[in-house]
Design brief:
The complex is a heterodimer.
Chain A lengths: L4 E3 L2 E5 L4 E6 L4 E9 L5 E8 L4 E4 L2 E6 L4 E6 L8 E9 L6 E3 L3 E6 L1
Parallel strand pairs in A: 2-11
Antiparallel strand pairs in A: 1-3, 3-8, 4-5, 4-9, 6-7, 7-8, 9-10, 9-11
Chain B lengths: L4 E3 L2 E4 L5 E6 L6 E7 L6 E7 L14 E5 L5 E5 L8 E8 L8 E2 L3 E5 L1
Parallel strand pairs in B: 2-10
Antiparallel strand pairs in B: 1-3, 3-7, 4-5, 4-8, 6-7, 8-9, 8-10
The chains are: A mainly beta, B mainly beta.
């Protein structure tokens, strides 16, 4: 079964607005990553946050991690039409190897 | 090449036929993953190779699915006696032998079983 569940499943906003997506997971993790997917093909890595970190920034992206609630959020500020894509969180279990398990994804639509 | 390469990009096959999908990971990457993604759905983990360790096959949906990897290079995913529900995009990813690292994805193979 999938480790992560994102919500909302779909999000529609206007350019310039902020977009917030949430991810919940089930087991203890080493790290959590967010990926972006355009047009249903290959995924591109956006940002990685370690289990001992609470917040991380990269450009217009802000990620938070709450290990007590087993949840993470991805905030995209000042969104652009080019941000339209599906966004997935991925976790690797605390024990064992780096096997990445992905969530169900949030489809973001940014309208001009 | 510079990235993860998958072939073919698209494959249409008749129900009951076997198909073989290929993944060339980035050179030096010890970890290799296969995922399945049905239309509009998330990524479903299939199998994970890490160096010379035994692969994690826990995600393979049935015994019709198998995968092999030659050392730390090419991997093939084989689906025998394909069914219509096997139609999906099959994504391969690789990552280097480091902790806390990202996975690099290929563009996937879109499989259509008719």
């Amino acid at each position: 079964s999938q480790q992560g569940e994102e919500d909302p499943q779909a999000l529609s906003i206007q350019e310039g607005e902020n977009a917030t997506m949430n991810c919940s997971y089930k087991t203890s993790i080493n790290n959590l990553q967010w990926y972006r997917q355009n047009s249903g093909r290959g995924l591109v890595h956006l940002i990685l946050i370690r289990s001992n970190e609470r917040e991380k920034h990269s450009g217009r992206l802000r990620v938070t991690l709450d290990t007590s609630k087993k949840s993470s959020s991805l905030l995209i500020t000042a969104s652009r039409a080019a941000d339209t894509a599906s966004y997935f969180c991925a976790t690797d279990a605390e024990t064992g190897f780096q096997k990445l398990v992905f969530g169900t994804g949030t489809r973001l639509l940014v309208s001009p | 090449g510079a990235g993860v390469s998958q072939s073919p990009s698209n494959k249409v096959t008749e129900k009951g036929k076997d198909v073989e999908l290929r993944c060339d990971p980035i050179s030096g990457h010890t970890a290799l993953y296969w995922y399945r993604q049905r239309l509009g759905q998330g990524l479903e983990f299939l199998i994970y190779f890490q160096g010379n360790s035994a692969p994690d096959k826990s995600g393979l949906p049935s015994d019709r699915f198998s995968a092999e990897r030659t050392g730390e290079s090419v991997s093939t995913l084989t689906i025998q006696r394909t069914q219509q529900e096997d139609s999906a995009v099959y994504l391969c990813a690789s990552s280097p032998p480091l902790d806390l690292t990202e996975a690099f994805f290929g563009q996937g193979t879109r499989l259509t079983v008719v």
